[in-house]
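Allow me, if you will, to draw on your knowledge of protein folds for a short while. I am sending you one protein, given as its amino acid sequence and as whole-number tokens for its backbone shapes. Kindly check, if you would, that the fold set down in the tokens agrees with what the sequence suggests. The record follows directly beneath this note:
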Amino acid sequence: MTKTTSYEISKKLKEAGFEAKTNYNFIKRNNQEVFLINIKELSGIEIMNEIGVFIESYDLETILDALPDSIIREYKSKNDSSVNKFKERLIIEKEEIRYSCDDIENADDANRYYKEYGYMQDLCVFKKFNDNSLADTAGKMWLLLKEKGMV
């Protein structure tokens, strides 16, 4: 079976207005039982009406397509209150999805920016998630970006 977002993340995505085509849906029947089904396997509209509430469940690729390839964030200097913008690109690794700065080329630059701008201290907005499912991780990333008005 395809790995998709969990029921909890799927519900949050729906509430936040995430929309994309998917073949997988969580079905909630009698406000209790929740199960995942491939809607292509359902036969007949009558069955769909009898089952209950549908909540879309998204695969990793679908959510990654909805995430921006890069974002621009601003940091204020601790020295003179000037603002510097940093471009951060989407990084996808085996156990995490995050945004990382392209503008910092080496460790010396990173240390200087960290001291002056607090760069990387603010990662709580785009923190790494180590969940069982990368689809859930991508879903959480989209939700954070939505909360910040970036998607």
Observations:
- Residues 7-59 form one domain.
- Residues 121-128 have pLDDT under 50 and may be disordered.
